[in-house]
Amino acid sequence: MKPAFVFGTRPEIIKLAPVIRAFEERGVEPLLIHTGQHYDYEMSSVFLEELELRRIDYHLEVGSGTQAEQTGTAMIKIEKVLMEEKPDVTLVQGDTNTVLAGALASVKLKIPVAHVEAGLRSFDRTMPEEINRILADHASEVLFAPTEEARKNLEREGITENVYVVGNTVVDAVLQNAEIAERKSDVLERFGLKPKEYILLTAHRAENTDSKENLRRLLEILEELPVKVVYPMHPRTRKKLESFGLWERVEAIENLIVTKPLGYLDFLKLQRNAKIVMTDSGGVQEESIILNVPCLTLRYNTERPETVKAGGNVLVGLEKERTLSHVERLLSDEEFYKKMASAPNPFGDGKSGQRIAEILLELYEKGELNVRSSRFI
Ligand code: UD1
Ligand code: UDP
């Protein structure tokens, strides 16, 4: 069997690495296609190195652009590779433009698509990611839903065939790397931090960073946080802050340490030892509950509602009062803190990658890995 993996951004590399490894352990060498949606060393190569994915078969160098430019260029380049290589299945993960491009290019060549992390919905169609996930799910033949909730979202849209609830491969990634990170990373020493005495922050989503007003609201929150904050900043956010003339204001915040984006081992260690995580990232919301660190999400919705229901995550949006009052309570009310920190992980046991490889190999052996003319059989 010849599976092709199409990926292009930081979270896709992290969450697909366990699936790639699972195939390799079964003697299958997958084809690795990197679109180059992320291209800075610290957004891409660092993860390929740390997660030992050194053999990339195709670097497509798509780079940045408008939504259509990026998706369209990726589609054109992915199609060429798929036509030449003729894989048996194309795996994509998540909700980026790379995912949409990979899924559309593949299904139209009648190469079945397997979508890892299928069925997530924020129910906010103004987010590019929501459009990407809906379309990718509907172009896919095999859907790997991380949770029962995600499976139900697919069912509501009429997708019931070849849907497997397998957990989220983010758990595999955390379990495979958290101990290594603890041993190898000296990130706390580098930034002069003590465990459980700082907040870890990430914010990069378009809805938070593309408007000056929203970035200003984020800074107003940061200016009042009562403990040290470490912010490994996505290049998108940095560029926007600079272009809106807000960079000097960032530099003036006393409690704030801004760094370049960090490698996975440094980031995992920072996350595990943080007192609180504040984020608009999908993957970081998931990792926080796995690592037992309370998470405040700087958004008004989430496609990971399981984390909120479990009690480990609160949606605070960019509401200053709401955010600060949660931070203060987490710092002063031990019971409240413990309750959030001990929320159960809803994303499975860390064997998702193994399950995905097994299921695809079995479908292939049975001759059932094909693009069927109708889903509604
Ligand atoms: C993309 C995903 C988002 C995901 C994120 C993971 C889409 C629509 N969005 O957002 O869902 O959460 O990846 O991090 O696919 N840039 C660099 N260097 C890089 C990459 C990007 O400087 O290596 C800058 C460029 O100015 C670029 C901007 O960041 O225009 C945005 O990059 P892009 O890949 O379009 O979207 P992300 O914000 O990274
Ligand atoms: N991450 C990282 N370094 C950083 C910030 C995040 O390694 O400086 C990892 C994090 O552990 C998680 C993933 O990147 O696994 C999340 O990616 P991101 O927030 O870019 O995307 P999203 O999950 O929102 O799509």
Characterise the protein shown here.
The protein has 18 helices and 13 strands. It has 377 residues and is of the alpha/beta class. It folds into two domains: 3-168 and 349-365, Rossmann fold (3-Layer(aba) Sandwich); 183-341, Rossmann fold. Strand 2 (31-34), helix 2 and strand 3 form a beta-alpha-beta unit. Helix 3 crosses helix 4 and helix 4 (97-108) runs parallel beside helix 5 (128-139). The chain is globular, with a radius of gyration of 20 Å. The two termini are 26 Å apart. The chain binds uridine-diphosphate-N-acetylglucosamine and uridine-5'-diphosphate. Uridine-diphosphate-N-acetylglucosamine binds at residues 9-11, 37-40, 43, 64, 70, 95-97, 128-129, 204, 234-236, 239.
Short description:
The chain is an alpha/beta fold. Helix content is 49%, strand content 14%. The model has no long low-confidence stretch (mean pLDDT 97).
Blueprint (SSEs and pairs):
Blueprint: E1 3-7, H1 10-25, E2 31-34, H2 45-50, E3 58-59, H3 67-85, E4 89-93, H4 97-108, E5 113-116, H5 128-139, E6 142-145, H6 148-156, E7 163-165, H7 169-184, H8 187-191, E8 198-202, H9 206-209, H10 212-222, E9 228-232, H11 235-243, H12 247-251, E10 256-259, H13 264-272, E11 276-279, H14 282-290, E12 295-297, H15 305-310, E13 313-315, H16 320-332, H17 334-341, H18 352-365
Parallel strand pairs: 1-2, 1-4, 2-3, 4-5, 5-6, 6-7, 8-9, 8-11, 9-10, 11-12, 12-13
Helix pairs in contact: 1-7, 1-18, 3-4, 4-5, 7-13, 10-16
The chain binds uridine-diphosphate-N-acetylglucosamine and uridine-5'-diphosphate (UDP).
The site of uridine-diphosphate-N-acetylglucosamine has 20 residues, from helix 1, helix 5 and helix 11.
Protein name: UDP-N-acetylglucosamine 2-epimerase
InterPro entries: UDP_GlcNAc_Epimerase_2_dom (IPR003331), WecB-like (IPR029767)
